[in-house]
Specification:
With 511 residues, the protein is mainly β. The chain is built from 1 helix and 49 strands. It starts with 16 loop residues before the first helix and ends with a strand. The strands form 12 sheets. A 7-stranded antiparallel β-sheet has the order 33-34-35-36-37-38-39, with no helix packed on it. Strands 5-4-3-49-48-47 form a 6-stranded mixed β-sheet, with no helix packed on it.
């Protein structure tokens, strides 16, 4: 019985040496790749934690430079003007120099971490700055505005052109990420941060309609009328109104037409036209408890979506926490009520806020002492609220003299549960702070009067005798406790550099 051709003694083929050599080379290449990856991971680890290089603006002797995430100098402080780092994971540093304040003229250039000038083919190169609702400055972390022959375009942080230098002006849609406003021949359009055209350059004005670029835009057309378009430049509300307010929900919109302010639906039909001076908010979803918060004669009240008054305008402020539940203010005190005016939380509090992602209520007094309530309005934890991180799902509190972490079920957990990349964790004993590892073993003795958790760069700030210093990810003292930072809103270190007093500028110094 034949066992098949492969085993037929009469058909044995000679060994193909070329194939064997090719296979051996392939195996060697695979082994090399594995070793390289392993080596990179080992180099990137700090006691088992993977890290990556980041870059920060620094300030020393009245000059600006750049440091890396180890606190080492990348660009020596030598520039008179603030160096902008649009994305601290990329070594692209934008410098301004030869500034003439009399003529408002200046020069710009881009440097990399080798102090080499890059993107030299452009006359000017600048970061694209924007502001959030609290007027904090931030920068587009992918696109840079460039100028050539008095026209503007966009490149990404690798230097690739993503929008040609053909625009008369490039700015931003204020407060909105991933939305860059361009002007060509006096008409505005919108690009995203990859240079993709979102709105054609055909509008006299463009402003944000909501809190992000997906909620669309209020646009002004050539006839001077306002409408709303979505992210695909499709009409949501016809451009025929004198103005449109940034208030919407449940497919309702607030517009002014012929001098009359009113609430309309998506078909342009009037829904509410009387009984108010202004509309503050509309429930996001059209549900049984959805409502419209209106203002009349300086007081706030509530209507349903047909305009029927549910709560008379008698409150000094009224904010929807969720449909049918409202945080109300009378004089200087706050409470929580429902749409039937039932008092759920008494009017005896300084401030009350609602965190939608965590589904919790925060009550704070004038000394920032906080009570955290669950969605049944039961007090679960109290102390000074330091942070609510909805990405890592924790609440950080200062309870007495201790820092404590809780999940959103209000269970106290060790910091290591949430700060999974940290090597050290803040601990307190006998009134002093120290650091332990993830197993609770003491690494830094309890000797400090105050301290902070380890930051993303692996450094912690420590305070002794009224002065601050820093330690590294292994607990080694990096800088002695020599800095008086009592006036600083945030104490943070990268190596020997501490964060500057102006948080909006996001820089580090040694002064």
């Amino acid at each position: 019985m034949s066992r098949g051709r492969r085993f037929d003694s009469g058909n044995v083929e000679k060994l193909n040496l070329k194939k064997v050599v090719a296979i051996l080379i392939a195996i060697i290449v695979i082994i090399m790749i594995v070793l390289i990856i392993k080596n990179l991971l080992v180099k990137g680890k700090d006691d088992g934690k993977i890290s990556s290089t980041s870059y920060f603006t620094c300030f020393e002797n009245d000059k600006w430079g750049v440091i890396d995430s180890k606190g080492e100098s990348v660009i020596n402080p030598s520039y008179q003007e603030l160096i902008i780092i649009p994305n601290n994971k990329k070594d692209v540093f934008l410098c301004t120099y030869d500034v003439d304040y009399n003529t408002n003229s200046y020069k710009t250039k881009a440097l990399n971490s080798k102090n080499e000038e890059i993107f030299t083919q452009y006359d000017q190169i600048e970061a694209i700055s924007n502001n959030d609702e609290n007027q904090n400055i931030w920068y587009d972390d992918n696109a840079i505005r460039v100028e050539k022959n008095e026209k503007y375009g966009l490149i990404n942080l690798d230097g690739k052109e993503i929008a040609p230098t053909e625009y008369d002006e490039i700015t931003v849609v204020e407060g909105i990420k991933n939305a860059i406003k361009v002007n060509k021949y006096g008409k505005y359009g919108v690009l995203d941060s990859e240079g993709k055209q979102i709105l054609d350059t055909k509008y006299l004005e463009i402003t944000a309609f909501g809190k992000d670029n997906k909620e669309g835009y209020i646009v002004k057309t050539e006839d001077g009328k306002y409408g709303i378009v979505d992210y695909l430049d499709q009409t949501v509300i016809e451009a025929k109104y004198d103005s449109i307010e940034k208030v919407h929900g449940s497919n309702l919109y607030v517009v002014t037409e012929g001098g009359e302010k009113k609430v309309i639906n998506k078909d342009g039909e009037s829904v509410v036209t009387t009984g108010f001076n202004n509309i503050k908010s509309i429930s996001e979803m059209d549900t049984e408890n959805a409502g419209i918060i209106f203002e009349k004669d300086g007081k706030y009240g509530l209507m349903d979506l047909e305009g029927n008054v549910k709560l008379d305008a008698q409150y000094d402020d009224l904010t929807e926490a969720k449909p049918g539940i409202y945080i109300a203010k009378q004089g200087d005190i706050c409470g929580i009520i429902d749409s039937e005016k039932t008092e759920i939380v008494p009017f005896e509090n300084n401030t009350i806020t609602y965190n939608k992602e965590a589904d919790i209520y925060i009550i704070e007094d004038e000394q920032y002492n906080a009570k955290i309530l669950n969605n049944n309005y039961e007090e679960k934890i109290s102390g000074i609220l330091l942070d609510i991180d909805t990405e890592k799902d924790y609440i950080k509190m200062r309870v007495g003299d201790e820092y404590k972490y809780y999940n959103f079920e209000f269970e106290e957990k060790p910091a290591s549960t949430f700060l999974t990349l940290n090597t050290l964790f803040l601990s307190k004993q006998d009134g002093k702070y120290g650091y332990v590892d993830e197993k609770g073993k003491v690494v830094v003795d309890y000797q400090y009067d105050d301290a902070t958790e380890q930051n993303a760069q692996g450094y912690s700030a420590v305070k002794k005798d009224g002065k601050w210093g820093s330690i590294d990810s292994k607990g080694n003292l990096v800088v002695e406790t020599i800095y008086n930072l009592d006036e600083y809103l945030q104490v943070d270190f990268v190596g020997k550099w501490h964060k500057g007093i102006d948080l909006n500028m996001n820089y580090y110094c040694q002064e």
